[in-house]
Amino acid sequence: MLQLTTRTVQVHAFGTPFPLLDSADPLLWWRDGEGMLGVGRALTLTFSGPDRFDQARRVWMSVADSARQLGAAAEPGTGLVAFGALAFDDSAAVPSVLVVPSLLITRRGGCTWATRVVDSSAGSSVDDQLDPDRIRAEVDQLLAASAGRRARRATALAADSVATLHADADAREQHVAAVRRALDLIDRGTLQKVVVARSEQASLPAGFDLSTVLQRLESVYPSCWNFCVDGFFGASPETLVEAHHGQVHARVLAGTRPRGAGSAVDDLGHDLLTSAKDQHEHALAAQSLLDALAPHVRGLQTDGPGILELPNVLHLATDVDAELADGADVLALVAAVHPTAAVAGVPRETSLQAIGSIEGANRGRYAGPVGWIDASGDGEWAIGLRSAQRIGSTITAWAGGGIVAGSVPEQEFDETSAKLQPIRQALAG
Fold first, then answer.
1. 0.85 exceeded by the pTM?
2. 3-state secondary structure string, 272-334?
3. β-bridge mates for residue 228, sequence order
4. Which end of the chain is more exposed for a tag (fewer CB within 10 A), N or C?
């Protein structure tokens, strides 16, 4: 029977985390200079199908219940932690995953910790591997090895970390036609809202260094959730749900204006705040989240909608806070709220069926939950937006927009182009 044993120790602070990442298989959860990175894999769990959330919860609870922790976990995101990336829908071609790193490095509140994870199920002694001085020495060796890579990774146009996203020649026409099909369903009363997305692809050079791309993303979008799990990466501005010590938080984004050259931020923000179409789209997304959270929480409070300003777009944003009422772990909350109307539509099931027929391609993990869970069931999860999936030598990036009555098909294509900009620019250097 699998048994993981962990020890967490405080280590010296370090600078940017990105040179420490495995260029081929980085594990990252980072925002505003804090978060976690993983090196190596102690355990990889995969799930699929309509019960993937329940599978993930049951298996993770079993792993956490059997685990041993030597010493105390220091802060949220230390101790036994799994990074996760879950598929958007039931028929995804890529699996949902939980990944426990062999070495977890966590930075919070200006302090840094390292957690070593080993499989102790064979009965052999793990004392040497989990010796605090050995863990600190391992981190020091990792930092020393990364020093020689920093200069190359800082070079914006390093040959092994540049790629170009390409769309089909008729991408605009295809997307405009897809939006018109969505509007027809709305006009007929089948839907109130549906999100229509499209993808672009890039071919990668040999030895492609994904960690450099992550560093570029974070440098432009530091306030977003910068993530990478099993080749799924991005910089998401939208918190799906997070839970810490009984407190629950989420953020809803719906209603967007691309930031073009010469566009005044104040004018764009005023346009969003006074747009009946965008306010309606946002209200549908916010209500879908509130309805899904309500059975699990008490004292729901909302703040918004206000304006969230990002380098590429402006969003209408509403923050939601509550107190956990039923003891649900964060994966149970994820299962309850996904997919929100911000990435699917209203009604939920009807919109999911429409997405499958309108888009004509499976989203995989795009717009699915991405984040982490610890041994106590707490964690942080974002919606996998401004994102892309690496499989072999190909990267596929996705972007979409919410369609409601009054949406203009040609403008919707421009919105997706603006939302692809973070991945496009990070790949291009």
1. yes
2. HHHCHHHHHHHHHHHHHHHHHHHHHEEEEEEEEEEEEECCCEEEEEEEEEEEECCCCCHHHHH
3. 28, 233
4. N
